[in-house]
Amino acid sequence: MLAYALRRLLSTIPVMAIVALLVFSLLYLTPGDPAVVLAGEQASETDIARLRTAMALDKPYAERFLIWVGGAVRGDLGVSVFSNRPVIELIVQRLEPTVALTLGSLLIAIVLAVPLGTLAAWRSGGALDRIVMGFAVFGFSIPVFVLGYLLIILFSVHWDLLPVQGYRPIAYGVGPFLEHLALPALSLGIVNAALIARITRASMLDVLNQDYMRTARAKGLSTSRILIRHGLRNAAVPIVTIIGIGFAMLISGVVVTETVFNIPGLGRLTVDAILRRDYPVIQGVILVFSLTYVVVNLLVDLSYGLFDPRIRY
Amino acid sequence: MSAPIAVSAIAPEKSLLRDSARDHPGLFAGAVLLLLVIVAALAAPWLGTVDPQAIAVLDRLETPGREYWFGADLIGRDVYSRTLYGARVSLQVGLGVAALALSIGLLIGLISGFSKAADTVLMRVMDGLMSIPSVLLAVALIALTGASLGNVIIALAIAEVPRVARLVRSVVVSLRGQPFVEAAITAGTRFHLILWRHILPNTIAPLLVQGTYIFASAVLTESILSFIGAGTPPAIPSWGNIIAEGRTVFQFAPHIVLFPGIALSLTVLAVNLVGDGLRDALDPRFVQRG
Amino acid sequence: MTANPPLLAVEQLTVSFRSGRRESPAVEDVSFTLDAGETLAIVGESGSGKSVTSLAVMRLIPDPPGRINAGRILLNGKDLLALNDSDMQRIRGNDIAMIFQEPMTSLNPVMTVGTQIAESVRLHQGRNTAEARQHALDMLRRVQMPSPEQRLDQYPHELSGGMRQRIVIAMALACNPMLLIADEPTTALDVTVQAQVLDLMRTIRSELDAGVLLVTHDLGVVAEMADRVLVFYAGRVVESAPVRSLMRRPRHPYTLGLLGAMPRLSTRGGTRHERLLEIPGNVPPPGSRGPGCYFAPRCAYATQECRDAQPPLEEKHAGHLAACWHSDELEEPA
């Protein structure tokens, strides 16, 4: 197991290296002098020259990449062109709201989707199944920001139950923290739930047709025990896989949700950096998000053995 | 399963539509809905619209009513007209991205499926690309190349290419081992004949299904990009842009966000339904959504 | 007739399955009884309704598409079809247990075999985890599982087919059921293992004094195990007799065909295919059945009478029932 984990960890290194190379190269795909692109339209000749030396743009391509990767490995992602502060510092500052939003929406998605998908499979073809699957297609089609605004209009403007926007760190108290997190996590969670519910249903349908489920019924077990203890664990591998794959969608959703709800997280940082063309920040944030995605999917891979004893490393 | 066949055998001339509605209700509903969106987009000038850019400052934030069916926006532009014209942008993006991503992905997938050496390199690059969340990748590309509809399409297509390439590659790899392809190769059949006769026909069904999913996801992502201010230039009335402009005032003028939001959701829903329906009807293996 | 009701009495059971808009019967008007300590074999081709009947007794017919349309299933005089779901759950695995056909697929792949055996004991007898585990170990010993202590914590994929079938049997016997239903218990096993499993079942039957309902297509197994036999054809009972009487002188042409189709040298063939190739033709699908005997189209003895009217299941000899207009004309098997 440990050996397998290490081997899998090592195998992600090439992927990470390619991600780094792609992220780094983005800047050079643009037509023209990157220094001019970076400095913006109003920059003077001296500004551009200063930027060129500061970012080592006068060095050869490969050397610049190695300098950048070398820094990134040590946690140095360069300095923001806009605020002149280290990118890593900006990222760490904005980490809490994004982590809270991601975990919160993931929790909502799983709590919503797994039972619904299971029930839909159990009563497949019935009314409940159609409702759940209808919800899943709608959830998959409604953009996060439209859903976010709908929820704000309902819960905050119309019923005045929850704050409209903003974020309170958990250090300010759990109550306000949860109040502010509820709507953004719900809008993002529902979209993700649609994906997970579909897969849960498909996977459970497959499992429900297996002989061992009939054996479980023949033992006189209750329906809930049959579905949860015997069914879900067998259906788990595709479900955790889709949670891992859906993480990419979740990250894109975070960027949008933070904009809708004015949450000062990594997503806002990204959007602001894009609007300001703060390239070191863009590079840093994309790198961090991509690495998180790779790590999450590594964890998903390693979790297979927990669910299915037939998978051995 | 046998009952519908019997019915259509008795009255084949008028039951085809009814049968398809009954056997694939999702596909049928999606197709009808999508057709409505296409008609709305193409016939926008004749559907009671005014110039979507015409400004009437006095009517700003007018609520939906007889004059402004969907209300007016911050500077008094007609939200109904803008929403209808916005459909043109979304369909253009969806179609453009799907076409571009499918052709590039097909090419890379074919190369990778036939050449071992290229495969290792290309698939590593595809893995890397897939690890970058598509919105972020597109956003970065657009931020650097400048906002234009063309660049949005290119950026979104690049983000979708890896999935298409993997799909095509898996089709090629699985076909390459099939007896009829092996027989053709041993018989000395020319490569382009094998490609045209055996490989490409088998990629059509999965690519069609994948293409509709790309269409849906491109429409969605374009609106996200426009919404966060890094997509289609603000001058073009795309749904994402209309919503972004209504963002600041949505608490007291929700209609600016609501109507294009509904149009957007329905369009994506229609395309997703068509995709799901095609997948069930054609049943191609390999297609993965998400 | 004694005052006590039989252990199991099935009365006029009819089960149908829906496909599309059509509902077709899988079991029609089936009645039989089974006493404690007795083994009743149900024989027939696949699709003859024998498995459906056994599942109906457990109330495990998948619904939809299946449905029990009519009849009563009495366990010690109590009608199982009248019970609510939770009462039925108390009976399943406890009073009635089932051994399924496929040991490879009827065990849950992600649970240890110990847990799977202990599960029903904990549920029905309210024992705690440690007691249930001890009981599971006892059960493994009882089914003669080699090195039982190690097996408890193993997963099904780590065991051989024969061992898995022992686990399936141990699971079924865990709560000392009064009725044991065995659906093709040896079909999926290879020949040597089949013999071992049959030996085991015989031993257990003598210890348990339970009624056994044995569903099989294998007349070799029937001859070895059963006291009485029901022969199913196209969802109906065509013959019901003590095993010796049936083997010596079948009173239905279909049974005659089955006996003729029985391989003579190898007692229990290793193949899983139904060996009924000698009877010409196929079981008519429900839609194309006439008013008469369902077997008539394939029957060498069929007359116009057979095609016009369904023969009733009548006693032709002491305790030997058959549904055939021409039972008396049948020759004895060669």
TrEMBL record, chain A:
Keywords: Cell membrane, Membrane, Transmembrane, Transmembrane helix, Transport. The chain crosses the membrane at residues 9-29, 99-122, 134-157, 177-197, 235-261, 281-307. Residues 95-300 form the ABC transmembrane type-1 domain. GO terms for molecular function: dipeptide transmembrane transporter activity. It is found in: Cell membrane. PROSITE patterns: ABC_TM1. CDD domains: TM_PBP2 (cd06261). GO terms for cellular component: plasma membrane. It is a multi-pass membrane protein. InterPro entries: BPD_transp_1_N, MetI-like, MetI-like_sf. The keyword Cytoplasm does not apply. Belongs to the binding-protein-dependent transport system permease family. OppBC subfamily. This is Peptide/nickel transport system permease protein. The lineage of its organism: Bacteria, Pseudomonadati, Pseudomonadota, Gammaproteobacteria, Cellvibrionales.
From TrEMBL, chain B:
CDD domains: TM_PBP2 (cd06261). It is a multi-pass membrane protein. It is found in: Cell membrane. GO terms for biological process: transmembrane transport. InterPro entries: BP-dependent_transpt_permease, MetI-like, MetI-like_sf. Keywords: Cell membrane, Membrane, Transmembrane, Transmembrane helix, Transport. Belongs to the binding-protein-dependent transport system permease family. One of its GO terms (cellular component) is plasma membrane. The chain crosses the membrane at residues 27-48, 93-114, 135-159, 252-275. Gene3D superfamilies: MetI-like. This is Peptide/nickel transport system permease protein. Residues 87-275 form the ABC transmembrane type-1 domain. It comes from Chromatocurvus halotolerans.
TrEMBL record, chain C:
Pfam families: ABC_tran, oligo_HPY. One of its GO terms (biological process) is transmembrane transport. GO terms for molecular function: ATP binding; ATP hydrolysis activity. PROSITE patterns: ABC_TRANSPORTER_1 (PS00211), ABC_TRANSPORTER_2 (PS50893). CDD domains: ABC_NikE_OppD_transporters. Keywords: ATP-binding, Cell membrane, Membrane, Nucleotide-binding, Transport. Belongs to the ABC transporter superfamily. This is ABC-type dipeptide transporter. Gene3D superfamilies: P-loop containing nucleotide triphosphate hydrolases. One of its GO terms (cellular component) is plasma membrane. It comes from Chromatocurvus halotolerans. The keyword Cell membrane applies. It catalyses: a dipeptide(out) + ATP + H2O = a dipeptide(in) + ADP + phosphate + H(+). InterPro entries: AAA+_ATPase, ABC_Ni/Peptide_Import, ABC_transporter-like_ATP-bd, ABC_transporter-like_CS, Oligopep_ABC_C, P-loop_NTPase. It is a peripheral membrane protein. Residues 10-259 form the ABC transporter domain. Its EC number is 7.4.2.9. It is found in: Cell inner membrane. It comes from the Bacteria. Its main location: membrane. SUPFAM superfamilies: P-loop containing nucleoside triphosphate hydrolases.
